[in-house]
Amino acid sequence: MIFYNVGLKKKVGFTASKKVGNAVKRNLAKRRLRALFFELCGEIDSGSYVFVAKSKIVDMDYESIRKNLIWSLKRLKCMKN
Prior knowledge:
Layout lengths: L1 E5 L4 E6 L6 H18 L6 E7 L8 H14 L6
Parallel strand pairs: 2-3
Antiparallel strand pairs: 1-3
Helix pairs in contact: 1-2
């Protein structure tokens, strides 16, 4: 889940609730989201982003998470491509 607010500079936050799993799984989810955000940072418009990890993210592979994230960012119209 992504929350986006238009702004002049990029700000980002990552969160994962206990519904995602134990501390190891929550940290894994946030690490994956963080890595993908910084990988796509050049293509994303400026603004405030909050990425909320859902429980399915720990079972998904990196490439499918990337594909879903790109789709979501395009749907929010905050991705340049």
